[in-house]
Amino acid sequence: MTQGVSRRRFLAGAAVLGAGVGASALLAGCGGGAGSDGSLQVSNWTSYIDPGAVRRFERDTGIRVTYTEDINDNNEWFAKNRAVLARQGWIGRDSVVLDDWIANRLINRLDWAEPMRADRLSNRGNLLPELANPPHDPERRFSLPWQVGLTGIAYNRSITGREIRTFDEFLAIDGTTAVLTEMRDTVGLVMRATGADVTRPSAAAAEPAFTELERAVADGRIDAFTGNDYVNDLATGNLAAAFAWSGDVAQITRDNPDVRFVLPESGGLIWSDNHIIPKGARRPAAATEWIDWFYDPTNAARLTAYVQYISPVQGVAEELTRLGGAAARLVDDPLVVPTPDLLAEVAAFGILSEEDADTLDARFAALAGA
Amino acid sequence: MTGAMSTRSRRRDRSRDGTVMSPGGRAGRRVVNLAAAAGLLYLFLPIFVIVAFSFNAPVGRFNAVWNRFTFDNWLNPFADEALVDALLLSLRVAAISTIVATVLGTFLAIALVRYRFRGGEGINFLLVLPLTAPEIVLGASLLTLFLSPTLWLFNISFALGFTTIVIAHIMFLVSYVALTVRARLRGFDWTLEDAAMDLGATPTRTFWKVTLPLITPGIIAAALLSFALSIDDFIITYFVSGPSTTTFPVRIFGQSRTATPPQINVLSTMILIVSVAILAVGTLAGERRRRRTGL
Amino acid sequence: MSASVERDAQGRRRARWTPWLLLAPGFLWLFWFFYLPLSALLRMSLSTKPSRFAVPEFSWAWSNYEQAFSDYGSQFTRSFTYALAATSIALLIAYPVAYVIAFRGGRYRNVLLGLVVVPFFTNFLIRTLAWKTILGDQGAVVSLLRTVGLLDANEALLRTPIAVIGGLTYNFLPFMVLPIYVSLEKIDPKLLDAARDLYSNTWRGFRKVVLPLSLPGVFAGSLLVFIPAAGDFVNAYYLGNAKTTMIGNVVQDQFLVQNNYPVAAALSFVFIAIVMVIVAVYSRLLGTEDLT
Predict the structure, then answer these.
(1) Is the ipTM value over 0.90, yes or no?
(2) I need a surface site. Which of B140, B229, C33, C106 has the fewest CB within 10 A?
(3) Helix, strand, or coil (residue B100)
């Protein structure tokens, strides 16, 4: 083969390759490209908003919204977006909803969160005072809770044959049991059972909990690690019991009264999903208006009536009553409108140091078989 | 391998019963038929479930427990907008990937079958290797490349999204197309081209009037296969899809963790029906052509 | 094939250039998006992260490979055991199907082949989720097995190795049926007549004539089932438990959950190396060098 051959071959190929890449880029631009129409780009978890909310927001504010339910997992979201965020690029989103711990990472460790625009926050005063100063965002400059939830144990009474009140009783169940794939929820709940303080977590404090979990997985007292899909398995009877999030269970208990949610006697966990504007967002002001709109008690009540988690907004109980019907009945559900007694039983998982988070994540993955 | 008929076996008596060519005689024949029928039934078991649950009115967010029969889902097949968007994205990805991969793969196949040149064996090996690589490795390696700050040689980096999905799909389809078309081309009589040129046709005209029509069935088969593979791909797409580009399978994976509306089953059943229709039309057309040409 | 170059009297030069021009675009694509990524993966597998969120740097870090072997031995073993089991079961199910279609399908051959392929026009994930419904604890299959005593009252199918292997078998079954069918269909009918004449015992006739001639199909089908089955993570995710995770689950988790790219890359490389060795040994055993 002569020089000429390979050179010409290369040029011809490069031309074709270039044309191919160019064509796909072009198609991406006119077809699947997000944000090309200038609307507010919002990402959220599946089934985490009431169906009419986006249209009502657009009507009230004149801001057009593209709402996408494409967050399924905090870690997965981070893995997919980190490269673009690291070079200060546009991830195609003005607004995302993520857990406390990953909010902490974005706000404090990596500086990948954009502050909210204070002048657009007319309803901020409705934030429940208990949620005003979390460790990941003490002045709430970057984040506001979307919804608040509890982590406890859910079980199918018809399979367990009895009520479950403690972690030990959970382990003793003769039937399939699952814990959550979110490390902080599972380890946190077991830490409470071992008497550790979850508000100031560390690898050392989590050690007894890990020992307990490792033993339980090894001898089959814990069978599986699940995301939200435990909801389905509990209702169908594929699971006898599982570590669970309150809102999910609030939704199924009405359909299947055998499924019950309990905070273990050693205590449960409370967490929030945070609304965050990622760095590089094109419409931070509109994104601030978006979250602010949900702090209007009426809008908040409609959201709560649908998703059945705990609202971070004051005055939601009154609005639920005004909505009437099924929504009004939620006021009596302590998982949606928690009583002070219930709130006394829960604690929030604090912030882990990065080294400890690394260690515990790896150890937890090994526990789950990956 | 025909050497298996060794001298040793020639000593056997001749069989009088010439009709049964299956293990264990008539009873065996029945057993084999039964096994095949059971196999086909097994293939369709989940399909029955999928279609049945498209008529279910689920209690709660997950369509997994039979509640009661309804036509509602079929009357509102596009109720889940995000799912429809995902399906449209998948169709767009499949269309573009199929076109590009079919062109590139057909070129490869023609080059390999028609010309003998040094390095042909090596080329063959390089072409087959992507097919033996597990999907998870393909996905992981592409993600590694896309995530690295610069693509080597070109100083551009890709945000995960439409472009990266299409690139990945073309990559894994090219080898499939090349091998499928090549298999069809192997029986092709290249002297027909000579005949055309002897009769005065230019090489370009020969290609369009003789070569292309003859290899078209193979190309169509490869394109259909590509389209099906692209639209169904989950593992590779899951690695290289971005936040705003959720394909149909990626959407279903996400929803399987949070809520599965019955529209998933409805749309899947629709895809199934369309595929069956395409398959039926293709089979009938092939049948008719065979009858006409008497082959 | 070699004739084409000489044949084309005035096209000698063209014949020298054309094949390379035809090959170039496809191979550049494969080079850029298959071979280059593989080398990026190799590089990554020898890198270390200077800090938790930093981009990994190349540093000849063989420790990633040590970790891949020491920490994930059981997942490797499981992947290959499950894939082997799934391949064997798929072969047992697929062979009679292919055999009946090829030899007894008559004019319905194409229809029957279509039936084999049709289920796979629904999505891979939906099929697996359907299996989850079928194998569920309250489902008909489990209650039947409990009635006949094959399962104890509190035993289940879901979240067991059986369910995972069953899912793998099902999802890749057509890849076994089609190649076996193709090789059976190619068998010359005259050869079958000869076999009938030669062997009184039809089983012997099958073993001596049909089976050997179908081996290329069996070979291709086995690889087409084994490779994707070994690398799958979806079946173990939906149908398995914490003790049935496969190497695909680990790679997925290390990449997309833990963001531990170096170890994930090392795992991928070990995995693909083992697959290549298995393919090579297998093709040597069956005496087929041609993979296609």
Answers:
(1) no
(2) C106
(3) helix
